[in-house]
Amino acid sequence: MNTFAGKERPHRPDWEAFVATVARRGTPQRVHHIELYQDGEIRDAIADRYGLANGLDKADPYFAQKQYIAVQRFCGFDYVVAGLTGLDMPLNQTAIPDTAGLKRDGGRNFVNEHTGPITTWEEFEKYPWPDPNTPEATRLLEWYERNLPDDMCIIGGLTGHFAELLTWLMGYETLCYALHDDKALVKAIADRLYEFYEADVRRLLQFERVKMVWGSDDMGFKTGLLLSPAVMREYVLTGHRKLAQMVHGAGRLYLLHACGNLSSIMDDLIFDVKIDAKHSFEDTIEDVRQVKHTYGRHIALLGGIDLDFLCSASEERIRERVRETLAVCQAGGGYCLGTGNSVANYIPLDNYLAMVDEGMRWSW
Prior knowledge:
CATH architecture: Alpha-Beta Barrel
Helix content: 40-55%
Radius of gyration: 20 Å
Order of helices and strands: HHHHEEEHHEHHHEHHEHEHEHHEH
Oligomer: single chain
Number of helices: 16
Strand order of the largest sheet: 1-4-5-6-7-8-9
CATH class: Alpha Beta
Largest sheet: 7 strands, parallel
C-alpha cells in the first residue's frame, strides 16, 4: 500500500487507555489494536518495508525484541506480549512445507492427533516436564521490564493451554478413549498442567508492567467443543478459573483466546471463570458485530476481522469491514481491533496493513 497512517501520523502508545478499553470503562478516544501474535515473517516484512530496524544491530542478542517494539509502535499497539521462555513441552509433531507467500524455511508443524507422548502411566512418569521456576525462564520479561518504553505495557502469556495440552500430550483420539478407560491418567495430566500454569502465572504477576495475562486454549471447532461441556468443566475450566482468580487478585485482567464454537460454555467462561475478554472470532461461527450486544455486554471483545476474509477480500472491502465493525463495537469500550485469530504469514501483507491503517484513520 502506498500510504500508511502509522508513517504519516503515528499513534502514541497509551497503555493506561488500552487497559481502560479492555476493562470497558467507556468509549476510548481512539481505536486500540490487539493481536494474539504476528508470525515473524509478517513482522520482518513490515520492518523491512518501513525501515523500522534501521539503526538496530542485528548482532545484538535482543535485536528481535527491539524490532518487535518498533513494529508494535509503528502499527499503533500499546503493548508487547511476553512470557516465560524455554519451557516447551515435547510433542509428537510433523513438519510440512510452508506454501505461504512469506513462507518460513522450517515449514509448519502439526501435532499428531492420534498418539501423543503420554499414553500410559509409564510414559507419564518418564515425561520431561519443564520447570517454570527456573531462574532463566524470566529473562525476556526482565529485559522488557527494564527496556520497554514507559507508554507501553506487557501482556503476560501465552499461558493456560489446558485443553490444548491434554489433547496434544495424549493425542486427541487417545484422550477420548482414556476419558472412558483411564480417567485417573487424564486427571493426573490435568493436575500437572494446573501446577505448571499456576507457577507460570505466579511468576508473570511478579512483574509490575504485566497489566494483563493472556490465556490461550483452543477448545472447539466450527460447530461445537472438542470435548463435552462436562469434561471441559472438570479438566479445563477449573484451570482457567484458578488463573483468573490469581490474576484478578493481583489487580490485572485475564484475557482468553479460544478457537471454536464455545456457545455451550460461554456462560461458564463469563460468570464462573470470569474472563475479562474473549479473543478468536470466525465468521462461520459468530461475527463479532453480532455479539457486541449479547455477551459483549459482559466482557470485552478482541479482534474479529475474519482471517479468511483478510486473505481473500479487496483492500476496499477490508477497509469497509473495519469501519462497519468499529461503528458497532467501539461505543462504550470493550473492543480492540484485530484479526479474528492471529497475523499468519499467509495473509497478504497489504491486506493486513489496510486493516491496521483503517483503524488508525478512524481515530482521526
